[in-house]
Write a structure and sequence with these properties.
By secondary structure, the protein is mainly alpha-helical. The protein has 15 helices and six strands. α3 crosses α4 and α12 crosses α13. The N terminus is likely disordered.
Length: 308
């Protein structure tokens, strides 16, 4: 028995593919074709034809055939982007929100969203193109992650590993509190989620700034130390996520005293410590901060009678 490879169709033109679809429709005397119809009677692979044009419905439209009603589930196909966007905005207004989820649009919308959403990279891209907001990612009833929650978990895992986490880490069950999907849904891809996190860490947004505060209300009240000296701090004692991550990254995610790291010993917990105690006038700035493990930090606290 002789084995022969199927004919190689990569160089087949679009016109030849569409002509063959029309041929099969004429042969079967049908106004529309299913994938099964073409697979049984077509000269080319069904996947070859579908992938060339993006979807089987697009193949049917180009061949002048009727779109499969079963695939569209009673929704009409809309060629006009603005009509499609207008209908999305109509449903969002009915819901009283500036966004609408895909399933919600399927129930109340006029058109098939799946075919059009491919053009904009997904449903969230379609919402943005329509002038609406992205759909918040939900893991259950009324559960939505904020950007800060996503970044905080990204920071925790990054510190634990001692290096940039891969998407595989966030897809592994039990290794993370939030899986990869919310990041991809929110930012578009895993790479874009990492870029957003780095931009957040490097940002000097006034709402969460590491630098000296501009008003007395943003720092702890003036206080006296043990000697009765009045201390007027220029920075807050609390260390925000951005500054904490920068300090740990500078210290290579290791304790500056004993060298322990969560990457080599999962039981190690890292803290950020004021080198010159805040209670004695030390400020919350990079130069006065260091990474210590919980044991070394406790030892220093006992010595200086200071916990930060």
């Amino acid at each position: 028995m002789e084995f022969v490879l199927n004919e190689y169709h990569r160089n087949t033109s679009d016109e030849e593919l569409i002509a063959d679809v029309k041929r099969v429709a004429s042969l079967l005397k049908k106004e529309s074709l299913s994938c099964k119809d073409y697979t049984e009677h077509g000269r080319y692979s069904y996947n070859t034809v579908k992938n060339r044009f993006g979807s089987w419905n697009e193949v049917l439209r180009r061949a002048g055939l009727s779109v499969e009603k079963g695939r569209l589930k009673y929704h009409d196909y809309c060629e006009n982007d603005e009509l499609f966007f207008e209908d999305i905005r109509r449903v969002a207004e009915l819901l009283g929100r500036n966004y609408v989820s895909g399933p919600e649009y399927d129930k109340q919308g006029k058109y098939c969203r799946r075919e059009r959403a491919k053009k904009y990279g997904g449903w969230n891209g379609t919402l943005i193109a329509a002038g609406l907001e992205q759909t918040p990612f939900r893991t259950g009833p009324k559960r939505t992650y904020s950007n800060e929650e996503l970044f905080e978990e990204m920071e925790r895992v990054w510190i634990k590993l001692g290096h940039q986490p891969s998407i595989g880490i966030f897809r592994s069950k039990g290794d993370t509190k939030i899986n990869a999907k919310p990041y991809i849904n929110r930012f578009g891809s895993w790479r874009k989620a990492l870029e957003a996190f780095v931009a957040y860490i490097n940002s000097d947004d006034d709402s969460d700034k590491d630098s000296p505060a501009e008003s007395a209300e943003t720092v702890e009240p003036i206080k006296a130390n043990e000697e009765g000296t009045i201390i007027n701090h220029k920075t807050r004692r609390d260390i925000n996520l951005r500054l904490r991550f920068r300090v740990m990254a500078r210290d290579h995610f290791k304790c500056c005293k004993c060298g322990k790291s969560p990457a080599t010993d999962p039981t190690v917990i890292l803290h950020i410590d004021h080198i010159f105690p805040w209670s004695k006038g030390g400020e919350t700035v990079m130069e006065n901060l260091q990474t210590l493990c919980s044991e070394c930090n406790l030892g220093k606290s006992d010595l200086l009678i200071d916990n930060g």
